[in-house]
Task: inverse folding
C-alpha cells in the first residue's frame, strides 16, 4: 500500500482534470460523490463524450465544470440552464448535462429552471441539494428544512422548503428522481437514465454539508449519512406532492416520473421550420 | 458469510475477490469507505498523508469481494478496487462429476 501515487490510476481519472485534484470540497462533503456518480453515468450511458458538455453555475457544486475533462462551462450565478438551453438549441446533437447546486438552480435560477422544464428542453439537470448556501457561509436557502438552523436563522428556519420534484413535475419535466449520496449506485443508474431520457430530466441529490449546515444543526458528516440511511424510504411510485423534505417524517427517494413528450427543438421545428418552408427556401436559392 | 437461509447453489458460487488501492494523498479522511464497506475491510491508519489526514488502510484484504462501494462513495476519487485474478478453477458440482 506504500506505492507512490504515480503508479495508481483511478478508473475515473480519464474524465478528470487530475492536475486540479484534490478538489476544494470539504472533508465529508457529498458533492464529490454526486460528481463521481455523474461521471460514471456519463461513461456508462455510452453517449459520445466528444459531444457532451457539462455546465455549472456558481457555488460549491458549480466547481464541477472545472474538474471534468470534457467541454465544460462555468457560468454566471443562476444561469447554468439558460447557457445550456442556448447550447442545445445551437447544436441539438450535444448531450448537455447541468451539474449545479440548489441555491444556483432554485433560488437565483428558479425561473430559468421552471421555464426550461415547461419548454421540455432536452437537458439533464443534476441538482446537489445541501440545504443551505454552503460557499458563502451557510445562510438559509430555498431548500433549508423547516426549523433548521443556519447563520441567518439562528432560532430555526421559519419557512417551508421547496419540494423540488413537485416543482419539476408541475413545470413539466419528463424525468424526475431523488437520491442521496449514500444511495450512490441507484443515483448513478438514475443519472444514466436521465442522460438517455429525451426531454428535460431532473435528478435531485441530497448531500451532507458538514462544515456549514451540519455544524449548526449538530450533525457530523457521518450523522447526516446515518440520517440518510435510517430516515429515508424508497418509493418509486410516490406522488410528487408527497415528497416534501422533513426528516422527522421520513424523506421519500426514488424515480418518480419517466415520460416522454415533444421537446423544445421538436416543437420549434414543427412550428417555425416546417418541411414545406425549408424546401421552398432551398428552391428559391439561385 | 452468514446466511439467514443458505442458497442451494452456494457451493457452486465463485465469490469474486478484489484488491483495494488507496491514493493516500487525495484522501481527506471522511471515513465513508471505512464505515460503509459491507465486509469491513478498511480501517483508519495511524499515519498521516501529505495533507495531515489519516487515510484508510486495508485491514482484512481477503474479505474484499470487489463490490466497488468504496470507489463509488468516495468523494475524493481516492480509492478503487480491481478484481483479483481467480487462480483456482470453478469447483465442479458433485452430481455432474458422477455423470
Result:
Amino acid at each position: 500500500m506504500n506505492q507512490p501515487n504515480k503508479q495508481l490510476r483511478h478508473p475515473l481519472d480519464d474524465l478528470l482534470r487530475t492536475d486540479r485534484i484534490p478538489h476544494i470540497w470539504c472533508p465529508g462533503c457529498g458533492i464529490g460523490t454526486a460528481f463521481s456518480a455523474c461521471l460514471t453515468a456519463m461513461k456508462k450511458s455510452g453517449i459520445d463524450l466528444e459531444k457532451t458538455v457539462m455546465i455549472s453555475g456558481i457555488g460549491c457544486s458549480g466547481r464541477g465544470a472545472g474538474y471534468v475533462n470534457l467541454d465544460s462551462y462555468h457560468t454566471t450565478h443562476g444561469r447554468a440552464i439558460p447557457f445550456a438551453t442556448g447550447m442545445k438549441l445551437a447544436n441539438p446533437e450535444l448531450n448537455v448535462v447541468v451539474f449545479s447546486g440548489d441555491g444556483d438552480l432554485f433560488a437565483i435560477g428558479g425561473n430559468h429552471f421552471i421555464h426550461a422544464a415547461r419548454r421540455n428542453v432536452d437537458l439533464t439537470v443534476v441538482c446537489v441539494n445541501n440545504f443551505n448556501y454552503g460557499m458563502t457561509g451557510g445562510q438559509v436557502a430555498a431548500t433549508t428544512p423547516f426549523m433548521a438552523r443556519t447563520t441567518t436563522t439562528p432560532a430555526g428556519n421559519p419557512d417551508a422548503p421547496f419540494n423540488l420534484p413537485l416543482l419539476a413535475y408541475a413545470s413539466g419535466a419528463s424525468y424526475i428522481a431523488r437520491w442521496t449520496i449514500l444511495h450512490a449506485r441507484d443515483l448513478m443508474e438514475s443519472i444514466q437514465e436521465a442522460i438517455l431520457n429525451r426531454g428535460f430530466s431532473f435528478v435531485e441529490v441530497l448531500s451532507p454539508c458538514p462544515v456549514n449546515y451540519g455544524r449548526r444543526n449538530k450533525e457530523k458528516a457521518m450523522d447526516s449519512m446515518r440520517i440518510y440511511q435510517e430516515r429515508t424510504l424508497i418509493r418509486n411510485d410516490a406522488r410528487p406532492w408527497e415528497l416534501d423534505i422533513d426528516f422527522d417524517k421520513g424523506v421519500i427517494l426514488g424515480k418518480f416520473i419517466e415520460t416522454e413528450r415533444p421537446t423544445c427543438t421538436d416543437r420549434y421545428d414543427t412550428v417555425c421550420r416546417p418541411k414545406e418552408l425549408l424546401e421552398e427556401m432551398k428552391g428559391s436559392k439561385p | 458469510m452468514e446466511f439467514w437461509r443458505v442458497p442451494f447453489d452456494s457451493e457452486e458460487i465463485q465469490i469474486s475477490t478484489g484488491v483495494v488501492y488507496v491514493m493516500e494523498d487525495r484522501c481527506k479522511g471522511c471515513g465513508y469507505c471505512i464505515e460503509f464497506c459491507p465486509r469491513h475491510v478498511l480501517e483508519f491508519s495511524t499515519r498521516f498523508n501529505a495533507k495531515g489526514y489519516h487515510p484508510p488502510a486495508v485491514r482484512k484484504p481477503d474479505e474484499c469481494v470487489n463490490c466497488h462501494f468504496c470507489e463509488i462513495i468516495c468523494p475524493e476519487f481516492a480509492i478503487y478496487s480491481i478484481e483479483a485474478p481467480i487462480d483456482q478453477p470453478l469447483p465442479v458440482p458433485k452430481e455432474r462429476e458422477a455423470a
Q: What stands out?
A: The domain at 16-283 of chain A is CATH 3.40.50.970 (Rossmann fold). The two ends of chain A are 71 Å apart (CA to CA). The CA atoms of residues 149 and 155 of chain A lie 6 Å apart.
